[in-house]
Amino acid sequence: MKEAIKDFQALCESMGKVKKTGVNPHFKNKYIELPALLEVVKEKTKEHNFLLLQFPKFEIKPLLITQFIHSSGEVIEGSIELVHKPEDPQKLGGSITYMRRYMLTCMLGIEEEDDDGNNASGIATNTQKPW
């Protein structure tokens, strides 16, 4: 397991910032699109001796499983519940896509590239007081 952990640490450290290219039409905010994220992650996992697998698993609750399988056979795994309306398969598909992105960014420590000049300059865009 030592080799897998060492390679996983190197994998996480190799992940740079990923640019937000998607736009949420309802909230007008930007997000990382799954295809762009997967392009970066698949390249980096291969460089660091891992295979990435993500799949839904239906037990007591529906889960998304994310596995990084090392060339040594060791597996680093995470899971998260898929929240959706059972009668709406499109909502399930959306939940899977959403959680795939978040599991990858969370497990690999991926930072989202700041696309807001105000955030980069330290200027607050929300002037409401927190109290």
List keywords for this structure.
4 helices; 3-stranded antiparallel sheet; flat; 131 residues
SSE topology:
Layout: H1 2-14, E1 17-18, E2 22-23, E3 30-31, H2 34-47, E4 50-58, E5 62-70, E6 75-81, H3 89-108, E7 111-112, H4 117-121
Parallel strand pairs: 1-7
Antiparallel strand pairs: 2-3, 4-5, 5-6
Would you kindly provide a written description of the structure presented here, covering whatever features stand out?
By secondary structure, this protein is α+β, with helices and mostly antiparallel strands. It has four helices and seven strands, in the order H-E-E-E-H-E-E-E-H-E-H. The protein has one domain (2-109). The protein has helices spanning 2-14, 34-47, 89-108, 117-121; strands spanning 17-18, 22-23, 30-31, 50-58, 62-70, 75-81, 111-112. The chain has a three-stranded antiparallel β-sheet. Strands 1-7 form a two-stranded parallel sheet. A two-stranded antiparallel sheet has the order 2-3. Strand 5 and strand 6 (75-81) form a beta hairpin. The model is unreliable at 117-131 (pLDDT under 50).
Question: Per the principal axes of the C-alpha atoms, what is the gross shape?
Answer: flat
Overall structural domain count:
1
Mean pLDDT over the residues: 83
Q: Taking strands numbered 1, 2, ... along the chain, how are they ordered across the largest sheet?
A: 4-5-6
Query: How many DSSP H or I helices?
Result: 4
Low-confidence parts lasting 5 or more residues at pLDDT below 50?
117-131
Tell me the series of helices and strands, N- to C-terminal.
HEEEHEEEHEH
| Distance between the amino and carboxyl termini | 48 Å
How many strands appear in the DSSP assignment?
Answer: 7
Helix content: 25-40%
- The SS-based structural class is alpha+beta
Largest sheet: 3 strands, antiparallel
Strand content: 25-35%
Radius of gyration: 17 Å
